[in-house]
Design a protein that fits this description.
This protein is an alpha/beta fold. It is 22% helix and 25% strand. The chain has one domain: P-loop containing nucleotide triphosphate hydrolases (Rossmann fold, 3-Layer(aba) Sandwich), CATH 3.40.50. The structure holds adenosine-5'-diphosphate and magnesium ion. The site of magnesium ion has 5 residues, from helix 3.
């Protein structure tokens, strides 16, 4: 898989400049799209993932982390109780999952804000639960399941002005 991932890094996909829409037909394809997205990210970028349980947010994040340079030696899986996993790579990747978030105040209490706009890339599952705490500038990714294996994935760069 590593070779395919590297090859895809040169693919031209300017997700930061314009809205794009994709369809994937397997978890592997979603991961590969994640790699192509991850390749284009830079320090301070925030990726806001939105989609139901089982949509493929974690699957896409696995690719994003690889694309951003996180090595195969690091397992990328949803943080369960602590809400955040850190992966060391070319650029640090902070994988935040707000599925278990009880209240907005917890984001502040856990210090999650410090990761946003920091030196790393933040990938946030259930980002719609952050409300006003989501940075204005972010890359929104909406994943919708169309059938068992088909996912519609919309990538929208959102900016304050
Ligand atoms: N095209 C696809 N892309 C991503 N996941 C898919 C796809 N087709 C089927 N799946 C399955 O959907 C599930 C997605 O799980 P996961 O990434 O953990 O979702 P989420 O993090 O959004 O809850 C996995 O069981 C995966 O095998
Ligand atoms: Mg998940």
């Amino acid at each position: 898989m590593a070779q395919t991932l590297k090859a895809n890094c040169s693919a031209d996909l300017s997700i930061k400049n314009k809205k794009s829409a994709f369809k994937t037909h397997s978890p592997e394809e979603t991961q590969e799209l994640g790699v192509r997205i991850g390749c284009q990210l830079s320090p301070g970028d925030v990726v806001a993932l939105i989609g139901d349980l089982g949509a493929g947010k974690t699957c896409l994040t696995q690719g994003i982390a690889r694309g951003a340079g996180v090595g195969e030696d690091q397992t990328v899986n949803s943080p369960s109780y602590i809400l955040i996993n850190e992966y060391a790579g070319k650029i640090p990747v902070y994988h935040i999952d707000l599925y278990r978030l009880q209240q907005l105040e917890d984001i502040v209490a856990l210090g999650l804000e410090e990761y946003l706009g920091g030196d790393g890339i933040c990938v946030i599952e259930w980002a719609d639960r952050m409300g006003r705490l989501l940075p204005e500038n972010h890359i929104q990714v909406k994943i919708t399941g169309e059938d068992e294996f088909t996912r519609a994935i919309e990538v929208v760069p959102v900016s304050a002005n």
